[in-house]
Amino acid sequence: MSTYANKASSRKGNNSKKGQAHQNTTAWKANKNSKKSREIAALPVYGLCQRCTDVIMWRKKYKKYKPLTTVKRCTSCQEKAIKEAYHVLCDNCARSKGVCAKCLEQKEVLVTKDEIKTNVDELKEEQELERMLNRMTLRQRRSYLRKLERGDDVSGIVPKNDDSDFDFEDSEFEFDDEEDNEEDDTDDSDENK
Predict the structure, then answer these.
(1) For 11, 70, 71, 165, which has the most beta carbons within 10 A of its beta carbon?
(2) SS3 category, 168
């Protein structure tokens, strides 16, 4: 045994630990307006356990997060498939093994990649909603928006199609018009004689 193993603190009396020398009166805040900070904050955190998620969020908050510049190699399948910083397993390997992609422990994964909505997905949903609202009649639109506000099920509301308003091909009106036009043409030719 070493001489240090049995030795306790040499200080006698009050051995309570003192607080840190420099107490922070306000929390540190990153520059929110920098382009890099906004990009890092927008990156999703998924495929990790609670502890690893907290670590990544802490790194983002205090500007310690360093995003990957190139694709990283997975330690399991040896393919270049990791696009997230601090992950050591690709998403497919982590799912198949049922482990956290960072610490490799079999803990509950909080958020999966499928649950994350990217900005592109949100834009597509907004555009689809806008298109659907434009196709609706005013009454349907107001009903749909009312149900959205209440949180009711809105899957039953179907927009009215532009094509279904009136189909000229199946109508007798067009057929009658053609006969009238033919009669008008014959009348015109009679008058010219």
Answers:
(1) 71
(2) coil
Terminal-to-terminal C-alpha distance of the chain:
131
State the DSSP code for 70.
Answer: S
How many residues does the structure list for the chain? Answer: 193
Instruction: Answer whether 101's CB lies under 8 Å from 94's CB.
Output: yes
Kindly report whether the global pTM for this prediction surpasses the value 0.85: no
CA 154 centroid distance within chain: 21
Whole-angstrom distance, CA of residue 86 vs CA of residue 99: 15
Quote helix, strand, coil % in the chain, to nearest 5: 40, 5, 55
Rounded to whole angstroms, the Cα distance separating 51 from 111 reads 13
- The two tokens of residue 127 are 């555009």
Residue 99 tokens, joined? 């482990």
Residue ranges with strand state E in the chain: 72-73, 80-82
Q: Return d(Cα 188, Cα 181) in angstroms, integer.
A: 10
Which tens digits make up the pLDDT trace of 35-87?
Answer: 888 888 888 898 899 999 999 999 998 889 999 999 999 999 999 999 999 99
